[in-house]
């Protein structure tokens, strides 16, 4: 009697296990990539938060340094200091509709020049002198200053203060003027008190443009070269 035919079963199921292994390897690889991406994202976020904290600390230190430098004028109320901007009432500096400094205004600018000069010498910053007006029309008539509008008046006042600061020893490349006219009011123009607040000059330290800094460094290097 013939013996039963035996059929080889070796290797049955091996392809399935191989496919399962490949699948698991793919899943593991994807998990590793996701984990790596998450870690990189967390690292970027941590670096960003650290940079923001450092920037805020530097800004706070800058404001405190400016406040210390201007302690005298701040204490007697001749100026204000809000978010790093030095505010001076237009009435302290100028007659209504004029760009010529009062004697008291010129004395105030002179008192600010020395601490501002010291402040700038310790930092790579420049001063933006900004002129602002209320929204009322200019005074006209015989003897009245001739300005086309409030924009021109604010520009001339900013230039007057900038030039006064330079006359007191601030470097010309450390001061520039800007005009805002009736824009950016700090109070309502509907009453006299509000309009008086809007007629002002602000002096704000601001970072020196990088291009100018690089040019100055290059010039200094060239000058020191043998």
Automatic annotation (TrEMBL):
Residues 81-209 form the OmpA-like domain. It comes from the Bacteria. Residues 187-226 are annotated as: Disordered. The keyword Transmembrane applies. Pfam families: OmpA. The keyword ATP-binding does not apply. Residues 212-226 have a biased composition (Low complexity). GO terms for cellular component: membrane. Keywords: Membrane, Transmembrane, Transmembrane helix. This is OmpA-like domain-containing protein. It comes from Roseateles puraquae.
């Amino acid at each position: 009697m013939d013996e039963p035919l035996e059929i080889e079963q070796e290797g049955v199921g091996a392809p399935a296990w191989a496919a399962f292994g490949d699948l698991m390897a793919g899943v593991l690889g994807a998990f590793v990539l996701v984990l790596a991406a998450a870690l990189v994202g967390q690292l970027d976020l941590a670096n960003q938060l650290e940079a923001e904290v450092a920037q805020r600390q530097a800004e706070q230190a800058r404001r405190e340094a400016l406040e210390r430098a201007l302690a005298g004028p701040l204490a007697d109320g001749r100026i204000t200091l809000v978010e790093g901007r030095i505010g001076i009432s237009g009435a302290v500096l100028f007659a209504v509709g004029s760009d010529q400094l009062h004697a008291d205004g010129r004395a105030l600018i002179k008192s600010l020049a020395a601490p501002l000069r010291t402040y700038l010498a310790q930092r790579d910053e420049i001063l933006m002198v900004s002129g602002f007006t209320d929204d009322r029309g200019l005074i006209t008539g015989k003897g009245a200053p001739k300005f086309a509008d409030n924009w021109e008046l604010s520009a001339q006042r900013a230039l007057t203060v900038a030039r006064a600061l330079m006359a007191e020893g601030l470097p010309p490349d450390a001061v520039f003027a800007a005009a805002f006219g009736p824009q950016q009011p700090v109070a309502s123009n509907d009453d006299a008190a509000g309009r008086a607040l809007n007629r002002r000059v602000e002096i704000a330290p601001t970072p020196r443009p990088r291009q100018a800094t690089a040019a100055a460094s290059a010039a200094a290097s060239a000058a020191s070269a043998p």
